[in-house]
Amino acid sequence: MGTFARTSAADLVAWLALFQGYLVAVNGDNAKYGMPMAFTITTLVWSAIAYSSQLQSAGELGNVRAAIRWGTDYFLKAASRRNRLYVQVGDPVKDHECWVRPENMKTPRTVLQINESTPGTEIAAETSAAMAASSIVFRHTDRPYARRLLNKAKLLFQFAKSHKGTYDGECPFYCSYSGYNDELLWGAAWLYTATHKAVYKTYITEEAVSAVLDEFNWDLKICWNPSPPFSGHDQALKSYKDQVDGYICSVLPESHYKIPTTPGGLIHLRDGANVQYVSAASFLFTIYGDLLREYNQKVQCADKQFDSTHLLAFAKQQMDYILGQTH
Fold it and tell me: Which pTM does this prediction carry?
């Protein structure tokens, strides 16, 4: 364990309780940011749900569950008190000044929280989504743990709805620029997926915000719903297919949006940290491509149609590029 400078007694007590979780910054910092951490866990859970049999065959399902649990154990501790959530550990400015391995860091371990007087709807709803989704993964292997996660997810979602306020405590590093409506929909969607309760379905159908976006990331997931939007069993969710199709069209280079690519074929979505957006897109193209194949559907982009085979090939090509196949 490293030694830490300028850490208050209250922060030290909280930090010692929050020893798990992940250091999620991409720029070498040793701070723990709740917003991108929760999104990462939710996305990892989604892969464990969608591809559990493949992960099992590869001998990796246990490792994935362990990685998820390392995050959810942290969230349970961070949300140990009702209407309070610890959302950051560390001083990002000081951490950014010194890139060292965690074992040798001597930066302050400042702890930030949200509560009734200083709300943060985005991060509360995002953490709710992570815990609701994770409950699905553990419901057959550790039912009491799954129940704890789901109960806490419900409380956090209620907290996010009843104490609305944009969270900016992690600025300028992980500010929420898109507002909190997408996180509330994201949290409700995962709660509906986990519980099938009408109250959450009502929220995602009646509070839906329409948009065509070309990104899916820790701050922006307004166009996505983890429930299949065209299963044929739920007409109320079908409106989400238009939003998902809009996202697909906005990313595919062959569509009418004309997304730029590198000479080797990697799409360019952002000037900074482009690979994280490309990898997120590849994940969603894989998820959606499999759904299109299952329900025999296609994506309509202006005068062009794209089937599941096209989407899955595109996702593979992007990941192959990231892994080094650039020609």
Answer: 0.90
